[in-house]
Amino acid sequence: MPATLTYPGVYIEEIPSGVRTITGVATSITAFIGRALSGPVDKAIRIQNYSEYTRTFGGLWQPSTMSQAVAHFFNHGGSDAIVVRVFNGNAINSTASITLPATSGSLVLEASSPGKWGAALRATVDHETKDKANLALFNLTIELLDIVGGKQVVSKETFLNISGASTDPRYVNLVLSQESSFVKVRTSLAAGANPKDGTNIVAVAGTANDDGNAITDTEILGDINARTGIYSLDSVDLFNLLCIPPFTPNEVLDTTWAKAASYCKDRRAMLIVDPPAAWSANQSTAVSSAVSGVKSMRAAIGNDSARNAAMFFPRLKMPDPLNENRLGEFAPCGAVAGIMARTDAQRGVWKAPAGLDASFSGVPEFTYKLTDGENGQLNPLGLNCFRSFPVTGNVVWGSRTLVGADQLASEWKYLPVRRTALFIEESLFRGTQWVVFEPNDEPLWAQIRLNIGAFMQNMFRQGAFQGRSPREAYLVKCDRETTTQNDINLGVVNILVGFAPLKPAEFVVIKIQQLAGQVDV
Fold first, then answer.
1. Which residues lie closer than 8 Å to 230 by C-beta, 6 or more apart?
2. 250 lies in the same domain as 317
3. What is the pLDDT of residues 435-452, one digit of tens each?
4. First vs last C-alpha separation in the chain
5. CB pairs under 8 A, 24+ apart, for 64-67?
6. Which of 204, 335, 416, 454 is the most buried (most CB within 10 A)?
7. Is 445 within a domain?
8. Measured between alpha carbons, how far is 295 from 377 in angstroms, rounded to an integer?
9. Beta strands 474-477 and 496-499: pairing type?
10. Would you give the distance in Å from CA 253 to the centre of its chain?
11. One domain for residues 223 and 145
C-alpha cells in the first residue's frame, strides 16, 4: 500500500506482476581466429557480412585460410561472426609510418595495424581551416591506395580543424585515436610546432615492414593474462561456434584443439574441428586414417570437453578466387558453421544441421568420396561425414559430437541435443539475473517457476521437445524440496529444469512384407 495515507480520497498503487520475460540468446554467432591481411591484432571484431570483413581485415588473401573460411560462412547462410586476427612477428617493426614535416621536428603517424597494407597509405595536410590565424589548426586527409597498383584510392578519411595543441578539444592525437581506422600518432608534434602543407606524402614502409610470418599454435592460444589469441574472445559477450582454420602450411595441433574445446566448454559454445589434409591425401588409406585420427583427437581433447566439439570429414574442393577459380582444398569449418546458422534460422537449434536440407553451395566435390560402407565405419565413431548423392548433391550427413561414438553411450551423443542444452543454459543464465538478492522464499520461487515455465512452454510450442503435452516435454521445479532451509541459510536457491530433447532420426528402417493372399479392403 502507499507509504503514507494523509488525505481522504483515492490512492493509486502499481503492483508488480512478477512477469520477467526470458529471451532466448543467439545460437549461431561464430568466432574465427587466424591470420589476416590487415586489421586490429588480438582484438575481437564483430562483423555481419563479408564486405565488413574486407573493409576491416583486407578480404581474401592467399596466406590467410581464415579469409576463405569467413567467406564460406557467409556464403552458406551465416549472418553474425566475430573475427580475431593474430600476428606472428614484431608488430612495431612491421607497422608502416608516415612522417609529416612540421615547423619544428615532425608529426609521425603509424598505420593502425601491422602489415604491408600500411605502405599504401597517403597523407595530405592543408591549412584551409575555420580560423586561418590559428596556425595550430590544420586539415588532415588519409587515403588508402590500391595495394596492388598503388594508384587508385580505395578509401579515404578526412579530419577537419584538428590541432597540434594538446589543450585543444580537437587535439590530433585524441581525434585520430578515436575516429581513424587507418592511422594513429606515433610521435607527437613538438610544443608550438605546426605541420607544413604537404601533398601525397606516401607512407614510409621501410625494409622491416612486412605481413609477419606464418602463424603457429602459439599465436592461436595466446596469453590468458594479456587476453591475446583465443582469450581475446573474453571481451565478447556471447559466441556459439568457434572455428580455427588450419594454418598454412601447418595443421592445428591436437593440444591446441584440446585447449580450444576446454575454452568452448567454459563459454557454453561448440568447437568445429577440421580434419587434417593428410587424412585424405592417400585415397587408399583415407578411411583408416580417419578412423585412427578421430580416436586420437578424442583422446587428446578428453571426453569432458569433447561434448562441446564436433568433427567433420573430408575437406571441401571448391573454386579458389585467388587461383583463377581452379579447384582448391579448403577446411570445412566455415561452411559447416554457415549451414548451422542457416538451419537454426529456418528450423531452430534443435534441428540437426544435416540431411538433404544441409547442402553445400559452390562445392562441386570433396577430397574423398565416401561410400555407404565407409560412412558406416566412421559414423559410429562420432565422425560426421559429407556425402555426395545424385540429384540432391553434396550434403552434411552426420550430426554427432566428438563423444558421439556408440561405445561411449553419452547423453550428449547428438549435436542438436548438446546445442539445445547450451541454448537453454545460456538463456536461463542471463534471464534469471534478477533473482540475485531477492528474498528467498515461496513468492520468489513462484516467480521463478512462472518465468522459466513460460520460456520452456514457448520452446515446446515451437516443437523443441519430445512429448504430447508440456508435462511430458519439460519440468521446472523450485520449491521446498529443491531449496531446503539449510540452502536458504546459505543464501542458495536451487532451480531444477529438465527437458526431453528431440533426437534426430539417424536410421530409418522400412520393413517390407509379402502378403500370402488377397487382402480385403
1. 33, 84, 220, 221, 222, 259, 260, 263
2. yes
3. 999 999 999 999 999 999
4. 73
5. 64/34, 64/35, 64/36, 64/37, 65/34, 65/35, 65/245, 65/246, 65/247, 65/248, 65/330, 65/331, 66/32, 66/33, 66/34, 66/35, 66/36, 66/245, 67/34, 67/36, 67/37
6. 335
7. no
8. 12
9. antiparallel
10. 20
11. no
**Do 355 and 392 belong to one domain?**
yes
Contacts of 189 (CB under 8 A, 6+ apart): 102, 105, 107, 164, 172, 195
The answer to whether residues 260 and 355 belong to one domain is yes
Residues 6+ apart with CB under 8 A from 348: 462, 463, 464
Amino acid at 486: N
Strands 81-85 and 30-34: parallel
Q: Which residue has the cell 581452379?
A: 326
Looking at the domain assignment, is residue 73 inside a domain?
yes
Residues 248 and 280 both lie in one domain: yes
Residue 449 near residue 20, CB atoms below 8 Å:
no
User: Do the domain assignments include residue 412?
Assistant: yes
Domain count for the chain? 3
Task: Determine contact, residues 210/23, Cβ cutoff 8 Å.
Answer: no
pTM of the model: 0.92
Q: How many other C-beta atoms are found inside a 10 Å radius of the C-beta of residue 93?
A: 12
Q: Are 65 and 245 in contact (CB under 8 A)?
A: yes
Distance, CA of 200 to CA of 89 (rounded, Å): 29
Three cell numbers, residue 471: 508435462
In sign, the C-alpha dihedral spanning 381, 304, 426, 482 is positive
Residues 137 and 117 in one domain: yes
Secondary structure of residue 235 in the 3-state scheme: helix
Provide the domain limits for residue 303.
30-88+214-416
Pairing status of strand 316-320 against strand 393-396: unpaired
Is 351 found in the same domain as 401?
Answer: yes
Adjacent-strand bridge partners of 107: 100
DSSP assignment of 245-288, as one string?
PPPSSPPPPHHHHHHHHHHHHHHT-EEEEPPPGGGGTSGGGHHH
pLDDT above 80: residue 108: yes
Query: What's the CATH code of the domain at 182?
Result: 2.60.40.4290
pLDDT tens digits for 373-398?
Answer: 999 999 999 999 999 999 889 999 99
Q: How confident is the model over 202-250, as pLDDT tens digits?
A: 555 444 458 888 999 999 999 999 999 999 999 999 999 999 999 876 7
Considering 397, 416, 435, which residue would you say is the last residue of a domain?
Answer: 416
Same domain flag for 229 and 332: yes
Type of residue numbered 240? N
